[in-house]
Amino acid sequence: MHLHKFEKIWLAFGIITLLVFLGIVGVTAFAQGQTPAGGLDTIDPDKVDTTAPFDKPGVRKIDDNTYEVVIKAMTYGYEPAEIKVPAGKEIRFTVTSKDVVHSFTIPHTKVNMMVVPGRISHKSYTFDKPGKYLTICNEYCGTGHHFMYTEIEVFEE
Ligand code: CUA
After folding, report:
1. Which residue, 100, 101, 104, is CA-closest to 91?
2. Closest by Cα among 134, 112, 133 to 123
3. Atom of ligand 1 at shortest distance to CA of 146?
4. Burial code of 23-35, b = ≥16 C-beta within 10 A, e = fewer?
5. To the nearest whole percent, how much of the chain has pLDDT over 70?
């Protein structure tokens, strides 16, 4: 079989590109410990209300620089409805869904996670500026999807 020179170049380009991409995935997964955005913790979606920490959703201080916010997502909203956290501190969001797939997305930040029933999603974020941050669901979850949002109030400590 004879391959034209350009075909060989193109084949080599394809193979090298594939190896580069596999290399990037391998390094981020194994060397940097990157896991799927949903996280790997599981929960029984029917028992969310009685399973810790979701039996007491809300803001909890871990130490002087770290806060955890436990949130339940459901059609069509988030619980607790009111979330107030300080600026300049690490905020650890812990989110799960009681029913279908939702998301927990704070536009213009790196917080954008899928919230899957049966899974617990985690994301840490530090708000630099105080203010009100609209938080939305960007996974279509039913007729009320467009009304599924909450607001996070970030205050100056
Ligand atoms: Cu929840 Cu869309």
Report:
1. 104
2. 112
3. 2
4. eeeeeeeeeeeee
5. 96
**Residue 39 pLDDT class (50, 70, 90 cuts):** low
For residue 13, report the distance from its CA to the centre of ligand 1, in Å: 41
Ligand 1 centre distance from Cα of residue 126 (Å): 24
User: CA angle at residue 34 from 36 to 25, to 5 degrees?
Assistant: 90
Q: What is the pTM of this model?
A: 0.77
Query: pLDDT digits over 48-65, tens only?
Result: 989 889 999 999 999 999
Pairwise CA distance, residues 57 & 104, whole Å: 15
Atom of ligand 1 nearest to the CA of 102: 1
Name the token pair of 57.
Answer: 């959703």
Which has the closest alpha carbon to 108: 88, 132, 78, 91?
A: 132
**Residue 139 Cβ < 6 Å to ligand 1:** yes
Confidence of residue 41 (pLDDT cuts 50, 70, 90): confident
Q: What phi and psi values does residue 154 have, to the nearest 5 degrees?
A: -105, 120
